[in-house]
Design goal:
Blueprint: E1 29-33, E2 40-45, E3 48-51, H1 52-57, H2 77-80, H3 83-98, H4 103-106, H5 109-115, E4 116-118, E5 123-125, E6 133-136, H6 140-150, E7 167-169, E8 175-177, E9 182-183, E10 186-189, E11 198-201, E12 205-206, E13 209-215, E14 234-241, E15 244-245, H7 246-252, E16 266-268, E17 273-274, E18 282-283, E19 303-304, E20 307-313, E21 319-326, H8 334-342, E22 353-355, H9 370-373, E23 381-382, E24 388-389, E25 397-406, E26 409-421
Parallel strand pairs: 6-22, 8-16, 9-26
Antiparallel strand pairs: 1-2, 1-5, 2-3, 3-4, 6-7, 10-11, 12-15, 13-14, 13-22, 14-16, 14-17, 18-19, 20-21, 20-25, 23-24, 25-26
Length: about 425
């Protein structure tokens, strides 16, 4: 008998540590390699990775509408060609195979040992080939905070902000998987309001606590995706750190938006948590006032309660949590973001990444960037070793985590981390 993959009573024959982000109800997708073998699609259960290419070769993933060859590829894009229905069937099949009362994989010693590997032996890679990347600006509190800093509270939100999901097109080539170091960028900035611009390494390196979603193949050029259809085009979610050089950004972004202050690197978590796994954690969307235009109207609960946190680990390896926020704080939903993105006929492709923008709550400890947490550097944070941070220093490791939890089931993302390397000398 098939048991729904989200059933909180499900248990796996693979041991899952208490408090793990990866119980049988999760089963995210990722790509990784070990023992010098080629990277292949994986899922994760507890502290073990499950090689989907081994299962496919054994015929255990037949009948899902996914070609066997898709499980031998170093990215999820070929597998994603099966669309929402195919990936949903794959998750259900994996749930059935890992269920504690199913002997098919559990009792086949050779197959089990070939397919399961400790996650600490796996080198995770980017889960998808990213074709395009869009960064939104969808947290009202974040937009308000930035507006207060650079304008005034009375005009904090620009006139368009409550009417559409503001966004810009970022650089896909510099999206990297968790664990990849980030080199301190260089560019032009103004050392003071009345000073001439200078060239050098950023003095205001920042993080942005975000969640991104990854798309299936979407609409043809000239067509659009409605809010009602949007989630059918979303594979799942990742944690996303949109590294930012605030001083470079402040000087360059008028009138066309961020450039060198953003395109040097963005980090994503390696496991894609499927949207289906997050169904139990839906929450009502905020009341939007003024009412949005018809193409942005939506029905049902389109937001998700996902607890988020960010911390700074110093060279001694110890970490200080600097903020705790929640994905539910977004004003604009993913469905609205995707509907707005395509309403003019812009086509969406498999592996596109859409990031939420910095997610800030309404308390100071829930602000999702150092720009806000230190209020442009005027209120430094104190770390565990007594040192202060206005912005990130060389050698700092920024770590982000996220999870949803309800009715005894925890669905998590693991973490996304990156260490800041010194700027390269410029000759």
């Amino acid at each position: 008998m098939m048991i729904p993959a989200n059933d909180p009573a499900l248990r796996s024959w693979v041991p899952v540590p208490t408090g793990s982000d990866f119980p049988i109800q999760n089963l995210p997708l990722g790509v990784g390699a070990w023992n010098s073998t080629a990277a292949v699609p994986l899922t994760r259960i507890g502290d073990r990775a499950l090689d989907l290419s081994v299962l496919a070769e054994a015929g255990l993933l037949d009948g899902l509408g996914i070609a066997r060859e898709a499980f031998d590829q170093p990215a999820l894009n070929p597998l994603m060609a099966a669309g929402k229905a195919g990936v949903r069937a794959l998750r259900q099949r994996l749930s059935d195979l890992l269920r504690d009362d199913n002997p098919v994989l559990r009792d086949d010693n050779t197959l089990r040992e070939d397919a399961l590997v400790a996650v600490d032996q796996v080198v995770m890679q980017l889960p998808v080939v990213v074709g395009d990347y869009t960064d939104f600006y969808s947290s009202r509190q974040h937009a308000y905070n930035v507006g207060c800093m650079f304008r005034d509270p009375a005009n904090a939100l620009l006139p368009n902000w409550l009417h559409l999901p503001v966004g810009y097109h970022g650089r896909a080539s510099s999206i990297v998987v968790s664990g990849t170091p980030i080199r301190r960028p260089m560019g032009q900035y103004k050392p003071g309001p009345d000073a001439a611009p200078v060239f050098g390494a950023t003095r205001q390196l920042d993080m942005e606590l975000e969640v991104g979603f990854i798309t299936f193949d979407g609409n043809a050029l000239g067509d659009r995706i409605s809010t009602a259809e949007a989630e059918d085009h979303i594979l799942g979610l990742v944690l996303f750190n949109d590294w930012s050089a605030r001083d470079i950004q402040a000087w360059e972004y008028v009138p066309l938006g961020p450039f060198l202050g953003k395109n040097f690197g963005s980090s994503i978590s390696p496991w894609v948590v499927l949207l289906d796994a997050l169904e139990p954690f839906r929450v009502p969307s905020p009341v939007q006032d003024p009412p949005v235009l018809p193409y942005l109207q939506q029905t049902g609960d389109r937001h998700f309660e996902i607890a988020l946190e960010a911390g700074i680990a110093t060279a001694d390896g110890r970490e200080t949590v600097i903020c705790r926020s929640n994905f539910k704080h977004l004003y604009w939903s993913m469905a609205q973001q995707l509907a707005h993105h395509t309403v003019n006929g812009c086509n969406v492709r498999s592996g596109d990444v859409m990031a939420s923008g910095t997610i800030s709550g309404d308390t100071e400890d829930s602000f999702g960037s150092l720009l806000e947490l230190t209020w442009k550097g005027t209120k430094p944070l104190t770390l565990h070793d007594g040192s202060e941070r206005k912005f990130l220093e060389d050698g700092d490791t920024l770590v982000m985590r996220g999870h949803a939890e309800r009715n005894g089931v925890r669905i998590g993302f693991g973490e996304v981390r990156g260490t800041v390397l010194p700027a390269l000398p410029y000759l």
